[in-house]
């Protein structure tokens, strides 16, 4: 009989009441895939918090093992690209939503979903970056493709004390940008300045209904918040600038106007990390290994154990987590 391992399993009854349990599983219980991986490290993302808390319909197959990303070691492979002992990273592809995810000792997935662990990073480092940090890098790459560079002016980062925001602040500052960090937790100002923020503003400046256009304050923005915050970020973006949008912490809506687009030529760049093509993933992880300062990565992350995942999931949705939470498996 296969060795057993622990997993967090989310289930739902006929009345759609959700339950979260820790269960014992074997490889025979896993879903289809051609590569089986021992999960060495994972993390708690905002989406994982929504899945475990049931506060948003993230899970689309029941029951489900949550956890949208992991770093691990290949145990067996029917994919010629991967061999036993390979160190790999996975982000997205519906893992933790429609396919059993990272909160288990083993995961079986498609080899197409995996990328090699970047040189210079171990499994815990990779999950200190995690999907949040990888998404932040995709946002920065999108801004660069649009022609944004440090000499264009400041870059706003919303939700700056969160996972995406913390990594975005750190990378942007290392690349030479003047970073304006927006946060609802002004007590985190020292933390954000330590990551490289040049200015820290209260999110109340952006989170309420605003004017169709405001004073030009930044050349670009990375937004993980949505709703009024995104609308106001757009309204205060300088002529020809761009906002990379990747999140919805405040809401799914966009209560703004077309004014910034048609009067200032501002661009809204949508950034999706879940289904991003492999070439983009490889580029993002390569850039992370080069452009994210190791000391800052340590400063923006903390480590918990498997037994602490459920509590951390609640905390992240409640806004009580700063930076990144790494799970040592």
Range of helix content: 25-40%
Give the amount of beta strand, in percent: 25-35%
Q: Class by helix and strand content?
A: alpha/beta
Alpha-carbon distance between the two ends: 22 Å
Supply the number of structural domains.
Answer: 2
Classified by CATH, the class of the largest domain is Alpha Beta
Which value, in Å, is the CA radius of gyration?
20 Å
Please write the string of helix (H) and strand (E) elements.
EEEHEEEEHEHEHEEHEHEHHEHE
CATH names the topology of the largest domain as Rossmann fold
- Please state the average pLDDT score: 95
- The CATH level-2 architecture of the largest domain is identified as 3-Layer(aba) Sandwich
The major sheet is characterized as: 7 strands, mixed
Can you tell me the CATH superfamily of the largest domain?
NAD(P)-binding Rossmann-like Domain
Global geometry: globular
Task: Figure out the total of helices.
Answer: 9
Strands, total number: 15
The oligomeric state of the chains shown is single chain
Which stretches are low in confidence, meaning pLDDT under 50 for 5 or more residues running?
A: none
Walk me through the structure.
This protein is an alpha/beta fold and 329 residues long. The chain has 2 domains: 5-117 and 301-328, Quinone Oxidoreductase, Chain A, domain 1 (Alpha-Beta Complex); 128-270, NAD(P)-binding Rossmann-like Domain (Rossmann fold, 3-Layer(aba) Sandwich). Helix content is 28%, strand content 26%. It contains 9 helices and 15 strands. Strands 3, 4, 5, 6, 7, 14 and 15 form a 7-stranded mixed β-sheet that branches. A 6-stranded parallel β-sheet has the order 10-9-8-11-12-13, sandwiched between helices. Strands 1-2 form a two-stranded antiparallel sheet. Strand 8, helix 3 (163-174) and strand 9 form a beta-alpha-beta unit. Helix 1 crosses helix 9 and helix 2 (123-145) packs across helix 3. It is globular. The two termini are 22 Å apart. The mean pLDDT is 95.
